[in-house]
Amino acid sequence: MTLCQLFLQPDAAYSCISELGELGIVQFRDLNPNVNSFQRKYVNEVRRCEEMERKLRFLETEIKKDELPIYDPEDNPDAPKPREMIDLEATFEKLDHELKEINTNADALLRNFNELTELKHNLTMTQGFFDDAEMAFTPAHNRNQRDSDDDQVQLLYEYSMISHNKLGFITGVVPRERMVAFERMLWRVCRGNVFLRQAEIPELIEDPVSGEKLHKTVFVVFFQGEQLKNRVQKICEGFRANIYPCPENPHERRELAMGVMTRLEDLTVVLSQTQDHRQRVLAATSRNLRTWQIKVKKIKAIYHTMNMFNNDVARKCLIAECWAPVSELDRIQLALRKGSEASGGGTVSSVLNRMVTREQPPTHHKLNKFTQGFQNLVDAYGVATYREINPMPFVLITFPFLFAVMFGDAGHGILVTIFALWMVLKERSLKDKWRNQEVWTIFFGGRYIILLMGIFSIYTGIIYNDVFSKSLNIFGSSWRVRFGDDTLAKHDSVILEPTPFNYTRSADYRQMFSGTPYPIGLDPVWQLADNKITYTNSVKMKFAIIIGITQMGFGLFLSLWNHLHFNHRHAIYLEFLPQIIFLACIFFYLIILIFYKWTSFDGSKATDAPSLLIHLINMILFSYKTDPPSAAVFYTGQKQFQTFLILLAVLCVPWMLLGKPVYRIIMNKRRANYSTVTNHAAGNDSDVEEQHQEEFHDPAEKRGVVLDADVRDTDTEDMLDDEHSHQQHHQHEVEMSEVWVEQGIHTIEYFLGCISHTASYLRLWALSLAHAQLSEVLWHMILHLGLSMNGYGGAIASFFVFMPWSSLTVFILLLMEGLSAFLHALRLHWVEFQSKFYKGEGYPFVPFSFRLLLDEAPVEA
Amino acid sequence: MKDDLLFNLDHGYAEGLCRGFKSGILKAADYHNLVQCETLEDLRLHLQSTDYGNFLANEASPLTVNVIDDRLREKTVQEFQHLRNVSYEPLSTFLDYITYAYMIDNIILLITGTLHQRAIGDLLPRCHPLGSFEQLGAITVADTPAQLYTAVLVDTPLAPYFIDCISEHDLDELNVEIIRSTLYKAYLEDFYNFCKKLGGITAEVMCEILAFEADRRAFMITINSFDTGLTQDERAKLYPTCGHLHPDGLQELRRTDNYDAVRDVASRYPQYKILFEGSGTNSGDKTIEDKFFEHEVKLNMNAFLRQFHFGIFYAYLKLKEQENRNIIWIAECIAQKHRARIDNYIPIF
């Protein structure tokens, strides 16, 4: 990774950036952080892009409104040249304008249409009222058949006849939910002097003003006198009721209705034509929409990038600063050259200039789709400090392995593997499917992790000889039961001994163990044993310890690598050595004892084999008893040797605690002497030197380069570096107390951590035990019920019982247990493994890349 | 204490939302950038980088101040209504109380509008959406306050406030202002009592804010009533009695007849003394209204310092309104190329 300076011709800059964007390996730095977004150079272009985006969004909503398909382009369109931008703008403008015109026309037509529809309903409904009234007015002999409503109507008419005063009326349409309030208001304002009839329009009606689909009600208000009429009209206005004229005379009403019908039919024809036209325009647009969107997005990104550049007026060029991987510099040069050519014979080609900086560069890992997932696991803890060892390649293997140790069941492993394989093989077609389903994207993103986890689980399952909690007897057990029937009948349980020294009736016993162990994994005969758990616990616990300590030791050696790379020689002697010696003295020794016990004690001596746990405790307490046989020593001279180890380990604590701060004090002193000497000796030279120094520092400071002031990273060389010393000298003295505190914490953390982390690795055993027990419980409580029944009933029961068993297996054992094992494995890596060497204080490399840009913001957003 | 324990059970989500919304209020740095804008387009670009996001993105150029105003109001209303929708009792009643003030404003707006012969269709869109109610449109029916009451207001929550203004006089402009003040007085007192009844921190915070609101109204009524036909007794009836001025200060305000006298009354109350001293009538000075606004902002900001109370909802809405006024002020200054007074907005943070 190197900091580069780019000198770009203003004309060529655009196409150069476009090429770099396609390449996507350069991270630009903002050189004008203090400038407001609207005061930057290319803000007008950005604004034009936003305007285009707005128009495209408008087009898209219109297309979506008509439910037309939007075609995704197969190829990736290049960012158009600045000249084409004008064409694009013109095209969009035209389309936008055209569509808006169509819309206004259609809106006017539609409003007309809706009004007519309302009028039509109004007429048909009021027709009903008037017919009722007419009926009521016909001779009175059918009066007793009428309901009370008709009575009212009739009263109304009678009243109008008596007073010789024609009643006025207003008809109209009002949204149904406002009807109640409307009615009450009418009644209040007119003091009950109006008569209201209403009828609900059965279908949804589009409101002429807002265009929403609403339930509406037709109403007729009868009243008397001008004043009431005014009031009713005002109320109608207030409630936004649409009032429609309705002739009083039935004949005119019929004519009006006819007229409305014909006009409606005409309008339908016109409307469908406009709709067709609109469809054609939109269909043409929808084909290009995505391409356009990508193009505009690219233009906008380019101008945003160019806004970050420094504009050098005097030299007529743009200056950019960027981080780029050293190995990719050739490709960048090539892209720049291509860019300059594309822009049409830029006389001066763009210049790429590597710069020296003290700033920490961003961290960039070359990844592929397989390693990506694992890198994400590591990065979730912290992005690696620049050039620090990246634990990803090791995590790649250890993570699925530790997971599998906890998840050890070949049957479950196969299911997981099949699921992961499906995702991996169908990768292409699944990639864009369910993109918005968060849970799915998590699974899909980790498909290779899941695949490895599945495969490793099959392996550990075979070692544990566990398939859905049952053992496979592939090679034939090494054990035979040769008791006679009478012996078996007498005892509830019998003991199989590899070396039957307790029994005297010898011939049978000798053949119970064939002498060669089961070729791979656990002997299936343990499946029948009462003490299976005792046995597997002992084995799994020891393995957990072995795996854990090995991994921690490995982590320590990785820290050695870091020290070597960063040239922190003092750290090797003052940190790495005490750490590794401490670990070796206590924990590596424990591993050796484990192996020693495994190899040197066989069945005949099993009962009085020394206990490892007691031994470890006694070793630290310096107590060597002989009382129970399990406390006996493994070998002669053990006491002396162990005492020596403990003393050595204890010695490591002050070594590490004091080493580094003392070293630092010495270095400070030495440097102080050095600088005073040089200052006194070379009075004149120092001026020159300082000048030189200023020259070096000034431009860097102007650009806001942060000088590296982190204590832990400044090592021997940095400290001797005289350029640095002037500025940092003062700082270091102040920070000495901080160094002490930090080193104290660091020391305590490591030594206590060694013990607690070793204990923490026992989760490997605990989870694996839990998993095995859970799956056994599931088998025995559920599936066993069906399988143990006789006859046809058993078949049917098995059928019914399989469903709960399989779903519980998937949900509890695969998903929940899998998740828990995953989290524990993650914790073991983050806390127990990475804490030994990984700082994770870097920041990620975010290249300017069109591909990333288009991926992260899906086009439909 | 018990209230604090159980507060989050019902109102925790709404409070969290409200505090989240509040953190989107523009900071001094944002204002600093806003006043540097040359055109409204710049303003839009800058607002994009704040919490407002893309709220103007779909507006065609050229942008006008009216569009910005509409969008700002829309956004505020949307946020408030979201809060109202997720609220439980008694928070929802509290939020409803806040909207009553807007109802009063709307009613007065419509009545004055109709007095000036404006069509109801033009007036309705200008009403504040928070204060709209079903019968609002029919307000033009009424010619006298009595009719207004029986026809329109009787079904609204404002009905009890209106009891004092029922009369058979015709509606004219002075009348309308009196109605407004009476309604406000009744409303503020009712709201004040409601907050008192809620008790706890809500009462502490809200009563302080409402008391200030009441006093501000008393001051403004007094100042605005000089040289009008309003008698001292009529004026005294309009003073809300839930403020710090009640009862002595109000008595004295009743007797004042010029600005200096008002200032004398205020000088007896330390919190108002500062405000009146800081204001002036010269062109460069801040007006007393601005001073009041600043004080209001301060009170509202203080509301956010306490937890487990409803005051923040009120305070948030008020702050948001102030922010909208600020943005509109800046936008107007930009649009009219009147940059000299662009800094006269009222800073919030």
UniProtKB/TrEMBL annotation, chain A:
Membrane protein topology class: Multi-pass membrane protein
Specify whether Membrane is a keyword of the entry. Answer: yes
Q: Name one GO cellular component term.
A: plasma membrane
Q: What is its main location?
A: membrane
Write down the InterPro entries for this protein, in alphabetical order: V-ATPase_116kDa_su, V-type_ATPase_116kDa_su_euka
The record's Gene Ontology biological-process terms are: vacuolar acidification
User: Keyword annotations for this protein?
Assistant: Coiled coil, Hydrogen ion transport, Ion transport, Membrane, Transmembrane, Transmembrane helix, Transport
Where does this one sit in the cell? Membrane
Q: Taxonomically, which superkingdom? A: Eukaryota
- The coiled-coil segments of this chain are 35-119
Gene Ontology MF: a single term: ATPase binding
Q: According to the UniProt record, where is the region Disordered? A: 680-699
- UniProt biased composition (Basic and acidic residues): 689-699
Q: Which family does it belong to?
A: Belongs to the V-ATPase 116 kDa subunit family.
Query: So what does this one do?
Result: Essential component of the vacuolar proton pump (V-ATPase), a multimeric enzyme that catalyzes the translocation of protons across the membranes. Required for assembly and activity of the V-ATPase.
Protein's UniProt name: V-type proton ATPase subunit a
* Protein species of origin: Adineta steineri
TrEMBL record, chain B:
Pfam family of this protein, just one? vATP-synt_AC39
Q: GO MF terms on file?
A: proton-transporting ATPase activity, rotational mechanism
UniProt keyword annotation of Ion transport present: yes
- Note the InterPro entries from the entry: ATPase_csu/dsu_sf, ATPase_V0-cplx_csu/dsu, ATPase_V0-cplx_dsu, V-type_ATPase_csu/dsu, V-type_ATPase_csu/dsu_dom_3
CC per GO annotation = proton-transporting V-type ATPase, V0 domain
The source's domain of life comes to Eukaryota
Query: Which N-terminal residues, if any, form the signal peptide?
Result: none
Keywords assigned by UniProt, alphabetized:
Hydrogen ion transport, Ion transport, Transport
Q: Which family does it belong to?
A: Belongs to the V-ATPase V0D/AC39 subunit family.
User: Subunit arrangement?
Assistant: V-ATPase is a heteromultimeric enzyme made up of two complexes: the ATP-hydrolytic V1 complex and the proton translocation V0 complex. The V1 complex consists of three catalytic AB heterodimers that form a heterohexamer, three peripheral stalks each consisting of EG heterodimers, one central rotor including subunits D and F, and the regulatory subunits C and H. The proton translocation complex V0 consists of the proton transport subunit a, a ring of proteolipid subunits c9c'', rotary subunit d, subunits e and f, and the accessory subunits ATP6AP1/Ac45 and ATP6AP2/PRR.
Tell me, in a sentence or two, what this protein's role is: Subunit of the V0 complex of vacuolar(H+)-ATPase (V-ATPase), a multisubunit enzyme composed of a peripheral complex (V1) that hydrolyzes ATP and a membrane integral complex (V0) that translocates protons. V-ATPase is responsible for acidifying and maintaining the pH of intracellular compartments and in some cell types, is targeted to the plasma membrane, where it is responsible for acidifying the extracellular environment. May play a role in coupling of proton transport and ATP hydrolysis. Regulator of osteoclast fusion and bone formation.
Q: What is this protein called?
A: V-type proton ATPase subunit
